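Morning, I've got a small favour to ask if you have a moment. The fold is given in discrete form, as structure tokens running alongside the sequence. I'd be grateful if you could look everything over and explain what you see. No rush at all, and the record is pasted right below.
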Amino acid sequence: PPQDSQHRLRLLFAKFISSFSDKERPLIMFFDDMQWADSNSLEQISEFSMHPDCHHVFIVASYRNDEIDADHPLMGTIRAVESAGLIVRNLLLHELQVEDVSQIAKDIFKHSHEKMSSVISLLHSKTKGNPFFLLQMLQIMYK
């Protein structure tokens, strides 16, 4: 049946991942934008994170908390992993403040805050303090 083959595939994947890690060389896996992960991917991550051979695998997952709620499948995966006794740490990253944008722009363009105040305001309002978008805009401006 399809469920059995899916389960075998997940076990094989867990064995494969565990082959890259041990006590002296743990493996760190980073998954970005987990708010968009499909349920099969979430089940796979959940299953191999709880597999006994994968206890030297460290998973870092990022997601946009403003795009999910408590009923989102990702939150169910997190609850399942926590229920299995694994350690889950949440780190909430806040948007950059105007002062942060000012310091970054000053470091890049080597101008005082006074000379760049209108640019800094524009950068902050357009990026809403998102570091990724800020760096994208600064790269465009620097060129």
The chain is about 55% helix and 5% strand. The longest helix spans residues 2-18. The mean pLDDT is 88.
